[in-house]
Design goal:
Elements lengths: L8 H12 L3 H25 L7 H4 L1 E3 L4 E2 L5 E2 L2 E3 L9 H10 L9 H8 L1 H18 L3
Antiparallel strand pairs: 1-4, 2-3
Helix pairs in contact: 2-5, 2-6
Length: about 140
Amino acid sequence: MASFNTVNLDGLIFDMSELASMPDDVIDEMLNVGADVIAEAQKTVGERMGVHLTGVTLDSIKKSKKVSAGSAGGRYIDVYPDGTNADGNRNAEVAFINEFGKRGQMPRPFMRTANEEYADEMVKAEFEVYDSYLKSKNL
């Protein structure tokens, strides 16, 4: 007849509950480092794609100051072009036109391209925060 033995099952259950109750500040830090990577990536790719006539639009790309709660309970940080340029045009509108083009201007999808190209780097930065949290709990 087969038998099943466990050693330190209570410890495993405790460790799993520690993981399930990760503090919001750790999640916020993960989102912040990920947003930093993506904001810089969008500036870099925008420069590479020629979205830099004056540099105002690329320089305006930033992350939101606080983490927001999503409608489904998730958390997120926005990365976006903020403010207006010297002509009074919103930098978000200028970025949109660059991203999708208009009659007589081909699209330069620098934001989507940056998000895709730098996804692994963003995940790596976020994982380092997560790994640090796990190590602090001896997990």
